Amino acid sequence: MILKNFIVLEGIDGAGTSTQLNLLKNRLSPEKTVYTAEPTTLSTGRFLRSVLRGDEKLTPETTAFLFAADRQEHVYGTGGIVESCTSGKLVISDRYVFSSLAYQSITCGEELPRKLNQDFPLPEYLFFFRITPQASLKRIEKRDVTEIYEKKDFLEATARQYEKIISYYETLQTGMHIIRLDATESIEKLSEKIWTVLQEMPILQG
Ligand code: TYD
Fold first, then answer.
1. How far, in Å, from the CA of 83 to the mean position of ligand 1?
2. Are residues 6 and 176 in contact, defined by beta-carbon separation less than 8 angstroms?
């Protein structure tokens, strides 16, 4: 099922999704738009952050369940994505199910993440930020804090898995608009491209 007015940005670490989400804040009306991200700022998301820092050691399967639990609350909880979208707001999320299908498939195989994520609604628009693991690593290395998934081999595997799942969704023809972006283009150029696509949305007309 496609959830109207829902937009997702996806890509490996360092692809620049957060930068683009922030730039959209200058373009869209604050009353009509909700900006969000996964892991969330809810207690489930905060717990996931400690897992990502390596402070909590969990099995890959438990981690996959936790990402799905955090998403369940993000989508269906009070003030969540479904509630906002159906009340006529535009919701833009930095990461969603595609992150679990890419990252957790590497750590615990494809089956569990697929099972845990198959029933979540799909966004109306999915922007996939493509970048080589080498280029993304260069960006990540400039940051102060690194997380457990920000390693070369893991990034390479994740990048391959992302390509695989995005291509799979393209063949499914779900009605979700999939836009592949070259994440190494300039910040301004990328922002223009995203903006041009979003202007097609009925919610942003008139
Ligand atoms: P993110 O907040 O984008 O990274 P940063 O802390 O650098 O801003 O995402 C945190 C990490 O969580 C990222 O490595 C991807 C990972 N992740 C998963 O493994 N599965 C998921 O379902 C989600 C949403 C994120």
1. 24
2. no
